[in-house]
Specification:
The chain has about 150 residues and is of the alpha+beta class. The protein has one domain: START domain (Alpha-D-Glucose-1,6-Bisphosphate, Chain A, domain 4, 2-Layer Sandwich). Helices cover about 30% and strands about 45% of the residues. The protein is built from 3 helices and 7 strands. A 7-stranded antiparallel sheet has the order 1-7-6-5-4-3-2. The longest helix is centred in the C-terminal third of the chain and has 35 residues. The mean pLDDT is about 90.
Length: about 150
């Protein structure tokens, strides 16, 4: 199991930040590396919400199906995905601090297949910097939306 953690401070109230970061249907217009999002469930985002997200990773498009497995507004939410023998878990937490909110992203990858277990150590070391860069880019893109006061849908 590999865990990668990044965080940023957003100069906006916790409720607004949580709202911006959980608007799944607007991710493609807000995060430059995401090219498409297809929401697969009806209703507001919450436990059980599923979507397909397509993003550019290392100059190639990759599509993954994701789902919410924990939703506690405005404090935290968890998203999971499975791909190529790996299980991915994202925990996003929102803590009011100073003049805004600290957003902390914990990304965990756990190999589920024999092949994934064999390769996970090597890929974890090789891709850690790339993954951190993508995570920080996502956080910063959404931080800008939350701070600029864009009307939420």
């Amino acid at each position: 199991m590999s865990v990668l953690t990044v965080e940023t401070h957003v100069a906006a109230p916790q409720e607004r930040v949580f709202d911006v970061y959980t608007q799944v249907d607007r991710l493609a217009e807000r995060i430059p590396t995401i090219t498409a999002v297809e929401v697969l469930t009806d209703g507001p985002v919450g436990d059980g919400t599923r979507w397909r997200e397509t993003r550019v990773v290392m100059k190639k498009e990759a599509t993954e199906e994701m789902w919410v497995t924990g939703f506690e507004p405005p404090h935290r939410y968890n998203v999971e995905a499975e791909s190529n023998g790996m299980k991915y878990s994202t925990l996003m937490s929102f803590t009011p601090e100073r003049d805004g909110t600290t957003v902390r992203w914990e990304f965990t990858s756990t190999p589920q297949s024999f092949g994934a277990r064999l390769l996970s150590g090597v890929f974890s070391v090789l891709l850690k910097g790339t993954m951190r860069k993508h995570m920080l880019g996502d956080l910063e893109a959404l931080r800008a939306v939350a701070e600029n006061g864009e009307a939420s849908s």
